[in-house]
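Q&A log
Question type: sequence-to-structure
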Amino acid sequence: MGEMIEFPRPDGKTAPGYYTAPSGTAAPGVVMLEEWWGVTDHIKHTADELGAAGFRVLIPDLYRGRVAAVGDEANHLMQGLDFGDAATQDARGAAQYLKSTGSKKVGVIGFCMGGALALLAAMYDPEFDAAVTFYGYPPPEGGDLGTIKIPVQGHWALHDEHFGIAGVDKIEARLKEAGVPHEFYRYDAAHAFHNPNQPGHAGLGHHNPELAKLAWGRAIDFFKSHLN
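Response status: OK
Response body:
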């Protein structure tokens, strides 16, 4: 199990985060970015799983302690979030913390809202060495994903009402055109298929245990090959 810590941001402020790790500090690091629900027990458990696989994991608490119970609350929290600040200060500060405390390489992974933030971090934060997104991508005004210099892995739901698969196709075409190393996987599933603990109302996502296990294994293998 992990613990809450404080870490410095590039702007000199501090941010809270959930930190979990295997014994020893030389393991590669991963910054994990939350779904729109906040730093829930589920996302902590997911970080603990990644820690058990051999990574030092830090989840910046983007909502500063607030967690949503239903979709309306989550949407309100997400709309109040400064995405640029989250990606270039919280996420980047977490990466710098992991690198300054022993990790030679650091990846970033995010789910839903956090997946969009992971791609922004891959674009704008030079500390990251690999990026994984589950179902989320930023809007076009977030920047040119073709400028990414690190390997990217994407896990996409074919029946995602929040992040349409047509947008995924456009992103993949841009990555191919720009020569960004990437591997995209499309699943016959709905949004948030990796999360068995959707708070609030049904319909926001449908857990698919088999595909969740497949995607998670691919993510761990990807980080093992690019961060070790």
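Response note: The first strand starts at residue 3 and ends at 8.
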